[in-house]
Amino acid sequence: MIKDSSTASQKQRLILVTGPSGAGRSTAINALEDLGYEAIDNLPLSLLPRLLNGPAHEKPLALGLDTRNREFSTAALMEAIEDLSEQPEYDFDVLYTDCSDDVLLRRFSETRRRHPMAGTDDPLRGIAREKQMLQTVKDCASILIDSSELSLHELRAEMSRLFSLEFHQKLSVTLQSFSYKRGLPRSADMVFDCRFLRNPHWEADLRALSGLDEAVARYVADDPRYAAFFQQITDLCATLLPAYLEEGKSHFSIAFGCTGGRHRSVTLTEATSQMLALAGWQVSCRHRELQRASGMLQ
Q1: Residue numbers of the domain that contains 177
Q2: In angstroms, rounded to a whole number, what is the distance separating the alpha carbons of residues 95 and 109?
Q3: Weakest-pLDDT range from 27-36, 64-73, 252-261
Q4: Are 125 and 185 in a shared domain?
Q5: Which residues of 222-250 are buried (b: 16+ CB within 10 A; e: fewer)?
Q6: What is the spatial distance between Cα 224 and Cα 229, in angstroms, rounded to a whole number?
């Protein structure tokens, strides 16, 4: 059990970094170290409680967790994440670096490295095994960075945007859509239920589309209840986000859910993202079910 030191005058910033091999975890750790974090890569899970129960750390911590470590266990990592989430003295995030299968395959091919979970087997099978092992961790991650289309420079720039320790750094807001059938995102600070809005799924011309498509977004926004709902979200964000920034919080996660996680929740996530970006907030988006479906097709 990690200690409870809620009497501490300031929260300890802590980022756990993980993700499939080749997706940018090491680059993310190195970027955090350059930003001023005390970074430890490939940390054995058995040392995590000892590290956090020791003397207070002057710098924020970034800990890299690699599936190749012989002590790695998904169950043990999930237990540690749940424990840390309940400790008020930590300003805690799980950063998951992800990447599409075809890009991972190309990266391993270009570097002539074997995938650590493939051995002499097909590299795609190793990629699939590792992603399956990490799926529950990915589902609970508070920050997800997909490096599929990012260069090394762009990934480091994204890390700086999200985790800079400069005094003027703004609160970073993550927005995500999800399906209630697959459960609520465990990392969400605030959740909105969109299931009362009319459902594009029942329109034959819209069913195969998503909230990223203009026709679906327009259909959802034409619901008579949409405008008032979105205005209340706007007002609530205008009240809460400055307060969380003043309180010292560096990251805030907002989730929108609907039945399938493809239409209404995606529409609201995109609309809220645009609204917050125009208001000057640092925003990133994730559509959990759309990303899941995309992964299945690869």
Answers
A1: 172-297
A2: 26
A3: 64-73
A4: no
A5: eeeebeeebeebeeebeeebeeebeeeeb
A6: 10
pLDDT tens digits along 10-66? 678 899 999 998 899 999 999 999 889 999 998 888 888 888 876 777 789 999 988
The whole-angstrom separation of Cα 161 and Cα 282 is: 8
Q: Are 30 and 97 in contact (CB under 8 A)?
A: no
Q: How many domains does the chain have?
A: 2
pLDDT band of 105, cuts 50, 70, 90: confident
- The candidate with the shortest Cα–Cα distance to 258, out of 204, 209, 212, 211, is 211
Is 132 in the same domain as 189? no
Q: Which residues pair with 256 in a beta bridge?
A: 177, 192
The reply to whether 27 and 142 lie within a common domain is yes
Q: How many residues appear in the chain? A: 298
Beta strands across the sheet bearing 251-258: 190-193, 251-258, 172-179, 282-287
- Measure Cα distances from 23 to 29, 100, 107, 285 in Å: 12, 8, 9, 18
CATH number of the domain that residue 35 is part of: 3.40.50.300
Q: Which residue intervals of 92-195 are DSSP H helices?
A: 101-111, 123-140, 152-163
pTM of the model: 0.57
Contact yes or no for 174/286 (Cβ under 8 A): yes
The tally of CA atoms less than 13 A away on the side-chain side of residue 164 is 13
Q: Are residues 54 and 157 in the same domain?
A: yes
Whose CA is closest to 221, among 242, 198, 238?
198
